[in-house]
Amino acid sequence: MGVVPASSYHELAPPPALAPYVECLWIHRIAAGDVPYHQPVLPDGCIDVVATCERVMLAGPATRSTTLRLLPNTLTVGVRFRTGAAPALVGVSAAEFRDQDVPLDELWGRAGARIAARAAETSDCPSRLGIIVDGLVGRLGRARVVDPVGVGIAPLLAEHPGRPVAQLAHDVGLSERQLRRRVEEAVGYSPRTLGRILRFQRFLRAARASGPGRSLAQLAAAAGYADQAHLTRESRELGGLPPGALLDWEAHRLVG
Fold it and tell me: How far is it, in rounded angstroms, from Cα 244 to Cα 250?
């Protein structure tokens, strides 16, 4: 079977200059081992700049799950944007790179290529992360003001994931069409899709906190699903597996 490498993940606060745009900086290390580490990436409504030893890319807003195959001794660092804030600094609509990873040189041309080249030259974690942060700080002079509707929609939906779009539009003083356009520009998908993803993330947090012996029916109700069957449909579509199998696979992977 081989030794499955351990995984460690840490989050850091962003520098004050990036705080209007960035939620956190993060570091993910895969320790020594004999076999690859399989890391699930589930939709969460976020956009990240991600740097490995080989490349730097913008990871767009996901609507489906993927699984990364990471080799032992892999170091990945990243910058996670606040939901809805990335386009103001990145300069591109979030909807344009939905479910895509875009190399930084394709996104920013020579400036992106320089950042990627410098990041590839160092294996030191703080230095690699600092290069990405410096690159983002260097773009502040041309950044747009963050759309308050774009960044404000996630907290509203996190509290009430099933809130109708018509009610959301009324709450923010826009027509439904205007709301959809601004949310898709800022977040990458419609308010309804964002609500589904945030509800799924609420379920995952509750399930991880509950530990063994969890009741899927109770977790479904706590997360805001109509019933367990509703949760199962959403888990299959967003997570790739029914909820019980998804949680069991995660527990087995982490124990390994």
Answer: 10
